[in-house]
Amino acid sequence: MGRITGPTIVGSIGWCAFATYLMVQSSLGTALVWNDSKVYAVMAHRPLWSSALWAGPRPPLTPLVIKAVGGASAVVTVQTAIAALAWGALALTVGRLVAPGWRRIAAGWVVLGFASTLPIAMWNRSELSESLSLSLLAVVFATFLATSRRPTWPRVAATAAAALAYAATRDAQVWTVAMLALATGGYALTQLRPHRAGALRVGALAVSLLGVVALCGWGTLASQRTTPDTADVLFVRIFPFPDRVAWFATHGMPQSDQIDRLARETLPTPTGVKVVGIDPRDPRFQPFERWLHTQGEGTYLLWLVSHPAYGVSEPLRRPERAFNFAQGDLSFYAPATHALASPSPVSCGHRWRSYSYSRPWLSTSVWRPTPGAPGRGGCSWS
């Protein structure tokens, strides 16, 4: 057994301090329950064989955790422990890329310091998918780094399992796994001739990641849970602009004339943003609704691909082309319980410094309206 060195002791103390900080930070008050938390709780009560769990209104991993451990307090404890272990694993993996000694300890501490910042640690106290998603992202990075150094079959399997869990937390993460699959496959092809055995393992990982994308993508498509998000983007960033409506019309969207007329009749909101909303129950726009559910997301994806500058410039517009039915009041996104106790700057809208801090987040989002308003579903980040 090797001798325990000073840097090893210091590194272990650093991780223990990090884990203690996370536990204390997440236990300063009661667990925060949000509107989405209630949706997760309803899904958690579905049977394991139910399609309402695997292809329901939210991705399945968070409901599965709730089903396994129980209420909000238990979820907070478990996801905080997962965060400590996940970021610790990433710190250890990154440290092993550096020469032994204090530089290795410093590299690990940089990772733990990043994981201690408020935008990362604040989610551990909430019964949401954000904490698990961030922790699993750390695990994905750790397993990918380990596999890149030595692509053994156990490491390939661990990376694929981590990617599956990560993609099952939030729909947007499926795209991340898809990009990783393409990059992994490309690397495997370049290494096929000089390192055949290793390239085969990396190629198997790429195929596994594509399988993850197909499986999690099926849940998204079968549930149509992202259709309200697509509609909200259209209402704020497409319909107010006749040239953009015309592009969508040439790519199959019906009722463009009616949409342009509705846009002319719609006044800007008090925040300065025009929202050309369509009630899904409005009989006048049922042809549009059918198109939205069958072709809307694919057409919007084509718009993003054919207009690459849009994805960069649109979040920088002022006023932000984002909206909620609380007229821009950030407390609309406070937890359903203990709103003012949240560590999230988004839910502390009464503090103007917190508002300025959260502004970059809001600029990249489109907000979903509350039930009862002329919109589609409960509030959540799009």
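The record above closes out task 2.4. Task 2.5 opens with a second protein, given below.
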Amino acid sequence: EATGEYSPQTQQYHLTLSQSCASPFLIPVNVALISDSGSQKQCVILKDHHQTFVFENVTSKPVLSLLGNFSAPVKLHYPYTQAELALLMTHDEDCFNRWDASQQIGSIVIKNLMKAAQQQKTLTVPDFFIDAYRELFAQPVTDPALMAQLLMLPSFQYKSIPLRNPALPNKVWSIRMTSAPLL
């Protein structure tokens, strides 16, 4: 679990990491703070159940990129906003984190479209999602394989699209096919 708090007065970012094991492990966590003024990177070591790390001279509220370069084989939850996921998808230097952000943001959109379809509402792809894709198309393509992965909508198997209802796969497929041309 990760939480963060930015203080503009002190220009500090406080990152609190926690682990829920009986005995805490030593977990290296590569952290990148992405902001208007660039990226600040550091590897921190989580060795207690809860630890707070302070980053100095952070001039604006950053977006966190966690576990870059697969620094540890762990699952880490951080409550990203849609805007933060869009920024990570389009600007993170870590390729896996960019891909993961694109999958998370795509899953959010698909879930919201599924909810709208169940309520018989008009299916509309949100502007933040379209803007993120526009940003990707505007960037120079240095890695075509990465770009292809970033542009793909999440698959049925992706972890955050629950398919507990047997009739749901048809709806997910329909929504994927509806939203793809809108991009």
